[in-house]
Amino acid sequence: MADETLIIPRHVGYVVDGNRRWAKQHGLPTYEGHLAGYNALKDVALATLDAGVEYMSIYIFSTENWTRSQEEIKGLMGLILRLFTTDAKMFHDYNIKLKVLGKREGLDSKILTAMDKLQETTKDNTAGTLAICLNYGGQHEIVDAVKKIIQSGATADEVTSDLIAENLYGAEVPPVDVIVRTSGEKRLSNFMLWRAAYSEFIFLKKMWPEMTKEDVTAIIKEYSGRHRRFGG
Predict the structure, then answer these.
(1) Per the confidence metrics, is the pTM higher than 0.85?
(2) What is the mean pLDDT of the chain?
């Protein structure tokens, strides 16, 4: 339940990082790191939305991740398909709406079919939106938005910040209030470039598979102590 003494961000974005390093530290294959990260994702998502956050976005596969080994990509795609099929019950049980942000090109037809079905069957759910950034890149998102605007016949004078925002992937997903990245790395890695204009940042040293619901509580407390100026 939401704590009324805290300032609850409307949109929390998570950059998943450290799955492979966690696996290496534990002497495990890379896939086991991604599987542990997958299990942590469910715990973090439920805790985040249960805290009263309306939108949670999570960066699980970037447009640059295709350069990884075929074995690793196959394992990741298997987990993604599992999220949209075997574990789709989570979205229904907890009344969560799914939104997938990213490019469709290159994704397996089974993933696309399952993804589209789950987005359709959860579109009226009201306990929060989980935005999965899949085959996603912030620069690609902005380029695709500009292409859509040009194709609409808009003139240069009609192009505004609002118009670009309206043409992003999942346009209803609002700007990110706070971006959290695990594993100690301190960079955006092409995540939510447009929506991150005034985001707060929280960098955690722990690896993603180590994330728990207690970390979500700490993140919201940290956010509540920030003073956001929005350039003012």
Answers:
(1) yes
(2) 96
